[in-house]
Design goal:
By secondary structure, the chain is α/β, with parallel strands linked by helices. It has twelve helices and eight strands. Helix 1 crosses helix 11 and helix 5 runs parallel beside helix 6. The chain is globular, with a radius of gyration of 18 Å.
Length: 265
């Protein structure tokens, strides 16, 4: 069968799906995997910016589907990782320009040369979502521990099961342990109990993620970043490694010790 197609999706927009796709693509490339990431969010492309490749686009996904470019012409090689490529989305077309059958055909061609094909799905449950689901071997659902995001993720899980895809696995993003401890945010156990899917990663909230994404250098490139480590751990789990989950409530330094002394934790 060749490479694996991993679709990264969500129900709600703004939960960090594109950032997750970029970080996983780079983390897999760091593991010496040959990787191509496809931006399937036609009309609203952003993956090129997060990966720092926005100035190198000549052809896009729709150009390939409509025959104006060959697949290799649309593939942009990453500046730092020679085995990592991006196929960008078109900005001037809508999602109806690509069909689920087009995505299956494209991914079958890419499977021959790559270990992983990551698809950044549009948020929502319309045509773009169906395009991204069609070729998927594995599906990762990104959600925040917010009630509205979890409810939308639950809707997506139902659609995935109806298409006989999956089982999907969950990435819980932007977890704030101080809020979880206060009972102001759902915990990982709460979310997995509600959604009844297996967890593949928990990414702590990190202000550095936004600045890293804006600069085109995803946070997984930062060795000391806990969120970067979380993405690297997810990539290793995708490769079949048994990687323990990080202890997000482990506080360090003077403030952490004071917190445990006075807070009883």
């Amino acid at each position: 069968m060749g490479g694996r197609v991993v679709t990264v999706t969500s129900g709600k927009g703004g939960v960090g799906k594109t950032t997750t796709t970029a970080n996983l693509g780079i983390a897999l490339a760091r593991l010496d995997k040959r990787v191509v990431v496809i931006d399937a969010d036609i009309g609203l492309r952003n993956l090129d910016i997060v990966m720092g490749l926005e100035n190198r686009i000549v052809y896009d996904l729709v150009d390939v589907v409509e025959g104006r470019a060959k697949v290799k012409q649309a593939m942009i090689k990453h500046k730092q990782f020679p085995d990592l490529y991006l196929i960008p989305a078109a900005q001037t077309r809508d999602k109806s320009a690509v069909s689920p059958a087009d995505m299956v055909q494209l991914c079958n061609e890419l499977r021959k040369e790559f270990d992983f094909i990551l698809i950044d799905s549009p948020a929502g449950i319309e045509r773009g979502f169906r395009n991204a689901m069609a070729p998927a071997d594995d599906i990762l659902i990104v959600t925040n521990p917010e009630v509205s995001a979890v409810r939308d993720a639950d809707r997506v899980i139902g659609l995935i099961e109806a298409e006989n895809k999956g089982p999907a696995r969950l990435i819980l993003n932007r977890v704030k342990m101080d809020m979880v401890r206060k009972g102001d945010m759902l915990s990982a156990d709460d979310v997995t109990d509600i959604l009844a899917v297996k967890l593949i990663g928990i990414v702590p909230d990190d202000e550095g993620v936004v600045s890293a994404s804006n600069s085109g250098n995803p946070v997984t490139l930062q060795e000391n970043s806990r969120s970067g480590q979380a993405f690297r751990n997810i990539a290793r789990r995708l490769c079949g490694e048994d990687v323990p989950f990080m202890q997000l409530d482990a506080q360090s330094g003077l403030l952490g010790r004071l917190g445990r002394l006075f807070g009883g934790r």
